[in-house]
Amino acid sequence: MGNEEHIQNSSSFINEDKDYIFLKKLEVLYIDNDIAAQKVIINHTTDTIHINACDSLYSAYEILESKNFDVILCDMSVPQKQLKGFFNMFEQKIPIVAVSNTMDAKIAYLAAKMGAKDYILKKNNDLKNISRLLHKVYLEDIKEKEKNNSLQLLNDMNIRIVLRDLINTELPIIQRLNTSFENDILINETIKNAYNIQANDILSNNPHIVKTLIKMNFLDKEFIEQTVACPNCKSVNIFIHYSCDNCKNSNFKRYDAIQHIKCGHLMSNKKINKNGKVLCPNCKDFYEYNSSNFSSKPEYQCNICSNTFTIPSMSYGCNSCNIDKFSISDARWIELNKYKLKSDNINKIKSNLFLLHDLEKFFKDLEFSVKQYEKIVNEDHTLGPFEMIVFKDRYVFIFILLSNDLQHNLSKIFEIDYAVKFIDKEIKSFAIALSDTQEIVLKLLKKFNIIPIIKEDLQDILFEIKKHI
Ligand SMILES: [Zn+2]
Ligand SMILES: [Zn+2]
Ligand SMILES: [Zn+2]
């Protein structure tokens, strides 16, 4: 794809300037059967945009086969099923902006759900900024592809918590075996809860997170050792059977055998005579009992067949599947690793991670109750989780973090709007973004009385929030 070269060249450019950048003249495919609207939109675009208008999805499919586009503008007044098919096919490859005659939150959400990057109204006021919006969407798309979606993953609450705990504890994640007698589970939760360390629980329920964090370049892998796993199911929950190699029973005792060093004969017990000497039945002679004549070493004797042996026979059974009694040569070997934070990459996301931490501290100092990743539940509905909810007396503050994902943003906004209607308190809600957000999001925040806090710097965000408290 010719685009790759472009992406590489553009990265430094984007970071320096957050506003309206023309990387190039954009090729935009505009699908709308309203010919008058087509004219209006073409009139509103600047010379940095080249609009290719067509009047149906059918012709759009055809055009897209033979030509590359930077952005697609798609009118929403087409049957939903057709729109879905179209979005499905193209939204991953080319950013799509939804266009509509009406300011309808439902249509906007539908568009977002299908993968639209933004939603624009065919009204003069909105169209004034259409060139800026198209360039922004195009830049965001490049940025997103550059980042390999890594920061997007920070919207995953579990990943955030694991990273937070790794930073706070300064400890690595270590793979180890932890199998125990089933009837003897004793867990002291006190310490874990006091420090609110949740990473272990999250990791045990979502083992894939480690892989994701490595892929995101947040963790380094270090080999520790290898261990035995079931050849059938790869489980490390292995039971070791120890037995007599003669009769195969697992019923034996350990004792210290005495060996006569001169002839190598082994005695299960020694008889010391009056003179302090011991008889070697092999040499048929008495020897002084000291370390130059005799040594002692651990031995085992079978309680069933009396066979003696120095090492019990070992075979393995799997506690997770039905395989029993396999030998070490049948076993599968697996690696145990240690995962350490890569600090340079973590620094890039620290503000994102610690935003909530700082906010929490601020409100706790004001004696608010603070809940992170909290759901609001009544008889009929579960809303959230919201990134943070703080409350005291009649006051409730709800915080959400906006992301690049339009659908995520819109669903959070709708949930806040719904929550506000059924909680009988004085609610203020805030939507925080660490970088620009979508136009439609700004509009809906205004409509639903949610305070937008769009700042790059942590301190600025806190400062701005304090003004509203
Ligand atoms: Zn035996
Ligand atoms: Zn001897
Ligand atoms: Zn198994």
Textual characterization of the structure:
This protein has helices spanning 3-16, 35-44, 57-66, 80-90, 105-114, 124-127, 130-146, 157-169, 190-194, 199-205, 208-215, 343-365, 406-422, 439-447, 458-468, and strands at 26-31, 49-54, 71-75, 96-100, 118-121, 173-174, 219-229, 238-243, 252-260, 266-267, 277-280, 285-288, 294-302, 308-309, 313-318, 332-341, 369-377, 382-392, 395-401, 426-433, 450-454. The protein has 469 residues and is an alpha/beta fold. It has 4 domains: 3-146, Response regulator (Rossmann fold, 3-Layer(aba) Sandwich); 153-221, no CATH class; 238-334, no CATH class; 345-468, Trna Endonuclease, Chain: A, domain 1, CATH 3.40.1350. α1 (3-16) crosses α7, α5 (105-114) packs antiparallel against α13 and α8 (157-169) packs across α10 (199-205). The longest helix has 23 residues, at 343-365. It starts with a helix and ends with a helix. The structure holds zinc ion (3 copies). One zinc ion binds at residues 260, 262-263, 265, 280, 282-283. One zinc ion is lined by residues 260, 262-263, 265, 280, 282-283.
